[in-house]
Amino acid sequence: MLSILQAQEIIQSEFEKYYIADQPSELYDPINYILSLGGKRIRPALVLLANDMFGGDIDNAIKPAMGVELFHNFTLLHDDIMDKALLRRGNATVHTKWNDNVAILSGDAMFIKAYQLMVQCNPSILSRVLEIFNTTSLGVCEGQQYDMNFETRDDVTIDEYMKMIEYKTSILLAACLQIGAVIAGASLSNADLMYEFGKNMGIAFQLQDDYLDIFGNEANFGKEIGKDILSNKKTFLLLKALELAKGETKLQLEQWINAKSFNTNEKIKAITHIHKSLGIDKMTIDASNQYFSQALEALKKVNLDENKKEQLRLFLKSIQERNN
Amino acid sequence: MLSILQAQEIIQSEFEKYYIADQPSELYDPINYILSLGGKRIRPALVLLANDMFGGDIDNAIKPAMGVELFHNFTLLHDDIMDKALLRRGNATVHTKWNDNVAILSGDAMFIKAYQLMVQCNPSILSRVLEIFNTTSLGVCEGQQYDMNFETRDDVTIDEYMKMIEYKTSILLAACLQIGAVIAGASLSNADLMYEFGKNMGIAFQLQDDYLDIFGNEANFGKEIGKDILSNKKTFLLLKALELAKGETKLQLEQWINAKSFNTNEKIKAITHIHKSLGIDKMTIDASNQYFSQALEALKKVNLDENKKEQLRLFLKSIQERNN
Q1: CB nearest A134 (choices: B115, B123, B145)
Q2: Cβ under 8 Å to A: B residues 191-210
Q3: Tens digit of pLDDT per residue, chain B (324 long)?
Q4: Angle between helical axes of B58-82 and B25-36 (0-180°, round to 10)
């Protein structure tokens, strides 16, 4: 069976051979640029993994897998404009390196290129694959919209937050596994279970990310610790703290959130302390683990030899055990 | 046979019944808004007309036809951001009424909705329809990029301009006719001839538009006369004038183009005079008519009873005779 690492390598080498077009250069250079910045290629690798699990021929899955990766990068390109992000994978974002117009239009072109790859699957399952892909893509846009709305709202509930991360992050991972299964000819119920697996894994992953931003080891996590705290980002932890804090703790929390000027280390330390005192670190890990368990449950229900599920189980384990 | 007017009415009534979604409202309200601003629905009507010509069932063509219209409106939405346009069909553009981020993301969602409609055609021709649609969409993006590039270039040739309008405007009209034919089960060569018809008609239409901006009757044309002149827009007429003008005329032309402050009526009058003195009004009409003839030639070659081509011929005639 194909391992996730092997699948990532296959996808990477396919992208090295992938030629988009060269004229007009303002349209195509940014696409080549963002693809050259790398990334882990997890989504397309999951398409290949699922396809392999159900005995599919890899040649039928590679193009749609690359399509999903192009779609993902297209969303990053447009999200970076909306978020006014300066850096992507340690390099200048497209709208910074070129300008907003170039980023809008080359993003649109990238989305079309994603479809051009996506439609290169067996005609007998094309309708089904596109149905999944379209529903998922629209959901990802909805997730991004909710995320932007949350920035200016101060009544976001945990339920709303869970829905947002499900849409923005996890349904695309879910769809990758489902599409891979469909391409391999898996039954409807098996393909749906793969989606369930991916959805739960994605939510677990995002909760972990929220946790690691505060409680991760800076060297291992690879990102600056406490960035979410400094930007008052409405993560699972902050929303939970706002829900549970009472009296003096609540006042302190609100003071830190509303403070216009502050020492960054002090703010991180204070909020981390509040989270710990409320037991939110443990709650977040528990919530994340619950979704990991649900992912495993879905995988168990997949009607397939257990040994064929091994690579996906190993992948899930590696995610659950990550500290970065 | 279905007339273009009947086809437009059918599409319009389908759009009145079309429900997108309502939450998140920032994502879907702008889509409903731009669709409510109307427009002639020419593109989807051409899908229906071509489908009808080849004896196709209208029920198979309506959804893809609407998909093309959604795609067209999506391009307007994003183009308006890039062009910083304030008005669309006499109303505030989406990025003005909301903001750039809303316009970017709701545009993306609209593009996905276009695909969702597009894929609702017979699975046996789905690959072919999507191949045409994807190639065309990408071409439209290329056309928009060339158009933006031209704004800051002063060495644009007539050939480059012809390619730009072909991509930006005419290939989508061409694809509508081709897709309609494919849905009805037309032969490959007939469908290709329909594309040829549409492409030439689109180019002819755009050249007419360039002409009418200067030589149209203001009341009939429905737009302000001379807008292209005032913005130094590199139309067929200006590029031809720059190519042909010599000596004193050339100097005058360049002075008007480079003038930072001027009386608008005087500029319009002077450039119009230069165009007339160089015979550019007639040249533009001749060029446009040549493309109209090529469209008719393609239609003649379509292997079908002549009476079935009547509605499309009438439509072409109505375009050619328009003065607005």
Answers
A1: B115
A2: none
A3: 999 999 999 999 999 999 888 899 999 999 999 999 989 999 999 999 999 999 999 999 999 999 999 999 999 999 999 999 999 999 999 999 999 999 999 999 999 999 999 999 999 999 999 999 999 999 999 999 999 999 999 999 999 999 999 999 999 999 999 999 999 999 999 999 999 999 999 999 999 999 999 998 766 655 678 999 999 999 999 999 999 999 999 999 999 999 999 999 999 999 999 999 999 999 999 999 999 999 999 999 999 999 999 999 999 999 999 876
A4: 110
Residue A271 sits at the vertex; the CA angle it makes with A260 and A152, to the nearest 5 degrees, is: 50
DSSP result, A151-198:
HT-S---HHHHHHHHIIIIIHHHHHHHHHHHHHTT--HHHHHHHHHHH
What CA–CA distance (Å, rounded) separates B7 from B46? 8
Give the residue among B84, B76, B22 at the shortest CA–CA distance from A100.
Answer: B84
Torsion angle of C-alpha atoms A184, A190, A195, A201, degrees rounded to 10: -110
Q: In terms of Cα–Cα distance, which of A3, A43, A60, A40 is closest to A309?
A: A3
Alpha carbon distance A180, A60 (integer Å): 9
Q: Does B90 touch chain A (CB under 8 A)?
A: no
